[in-house]
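Lab meeting notes turned into a lecture example. A postdoc, R.K., suggested we walk through two folding results consecutively so the class can see how the record format repeats. The first protein's sequence and structure tokens come next.
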Amino acid sequence: IASETVFTVSEVEALYELFKRISSAVSDDGMINKDEFQLALFNTSKKESLFADRVFNLFDTKHNGMLEFGEFARALSVFHPAASLEEKIDFSFQLYDLTQQGFIERQETFDEADTKQDGKIDKEEWRSMVLQHPSLLKNVTLQYLKDITTAFPSFVFHSQ
């Protein structure tokens, strides 16, 4: 997993321990369900959070309603401060592409992004908008992931 993400081996080990903790919060089945995910990452158990649902669904690449460790680690990688701008742009575009049709439905807040004036925002237009307004990506970076091994030192196994 370390070779597929921006995480080091030690960080992957720390993430695995975190994953085990999260996955046993509601039911100890070795997988993270939507409730456990919301509670852990968004510190809420509110049933209706569109943002948390969208993020969970993007993490859930197998589309089975549960996150395995690989899905969890690969998806969290995009939130790491060392993740590339392109990865963050791609993830945020998918987050706003609610219908998953390759474009964002034009909304009041994104009118200026629709430079082609076709009523929708494609990935190229989104990229331009994000480069002009980097604050749109602030929710796609979790600073604590940069120091996951120091944030959770008891989780590090010091692999060779």
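The second example is placed directly after the first for contrast:
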Amino acid sequence: LPILDVRMLGAGRPFVVEVKHARLVSPTAAMAEAAVNEAAGGVMKIHKLEPCRASDMTALQRDAESHRKTYVCVCWCDRPLLLADAEALAAKGEFQVNQKTPVRVLHRRAAATRPKTVHSLQAEVLNPHYFKLRVCAEAGMYIKEFVHGDFGRTRPSMRSLLGGQVEILQLDVEGLEDGS
């Protein structure tokens, strides 16, 4: 399977960085932000950087799984797609997906089956074999594997829903919402 970089669009998402062995004892948040943005050369940008307490990290981890994420991806299917396929996906509404730990992360994650919720699907057929897919799903869902099926380890998947081989070509996180 191809390596795929995922972009975070929209307002971004919170993150925590622990600085070890800092050469400057007390860099300001503005100094750290400027250094990261300069080093990134426009590929990414951080803003609103501020110092945090250990309890902030705990809260960030606790709250992460309660979010909904909206993803937009460009996909390819080996069989020609019709408008009826897009309509059938939208009509599915909310449903559960069972995901075994993906093959690509088994070396660093425990083998388990995790139920995740897809809140909605919207597909736009671009031409007979290419489509744009918008997925609103529970945080923690492996979207790449939901699309291609991960050798049958994710059920249902776009592969099983469309009845053909499906590959993901581009993936963006469009938004992050508090799911509570």
